[in-house]
Write a structure and sequence with these properties.
By secondary structure, the protein is mainly α. The chain is 98% helix and 0% strand. The chain contains 1 helix and no strands. The longest helix is centred in the middle third of the chain and has 112 residues.
Length: 114
C-alpha cells in the first residue's frame, strides 16, 4: 500500500501543480486583460481630448477669421463711401462748371443779339 500511497501523493502533487499553473495562467490573463482595458481607456481618452482640443483650435481660428473679415468689410465700406462722396463731389463740380459755361455762352449770345 505504500506504493499506492506514493502514487496517490505524486498524483495529488501533480494535480496541485497543474491547478497552480492554471490559476497562474488565469491571473496572468486577467492582469493582461485589465492592462489592455486600461490602455484602451487611456487611448480613447487621448483621442477624445485631442478631438476636443482640435475643435477648440478650429473654433478660435474661425472666430479670428470672422473678426478679420468683419474688419475688412468695415474698411471696404469706409473706402467705398469716401470714393462715392468724392465722385459725387466731382460730378457736382462738373455739372456746376457745365452750367456756368452754358450760362456764360447764353449771356454772350444775349448780349450780342441786343
Amino acid at each position: 500500500m505504500t506504493l499506492e500511497n506514493n502514487n496517490a501523493d505524486k498524483i495529488n502533487e501533480v494535480a496541485e501543480k497543474l491547478t497552480e499553473a492554471v490559476w497562474d495562467s488565469y491571473e496572468t490573463t486577467i492582469e493582461s486583460t485589465a492592462a489592455v482595458q486600461k490602455s484602451g481607456a487611456r487611448l480613447a481618452q487621448s483621442f477624445y481630448e485631442g478631438g476636443v482640443e482640435a475643435l477648440k483650435i478650429q473654433t478660435e481660428i474661425q472666430q479670428q477669421t470672422l473678426q478679420n473679415m468683419t474688419e475688412k468689410i468695415r474698411k471696404h465700406q469706409e473706402v467705398f463711401q469716401k470714393v462715392s462722396r468724392e465722385s459725387l463731389g466731382a460730378y457736382d463740380g462738373f455739372m456746376g462748371s457745365l452750367f456756368s459755361y452754358y450760362r456764360d455762352v447764353l449771356g454772350e449770345y444775349e448780349d450780342s443779339g441786343d
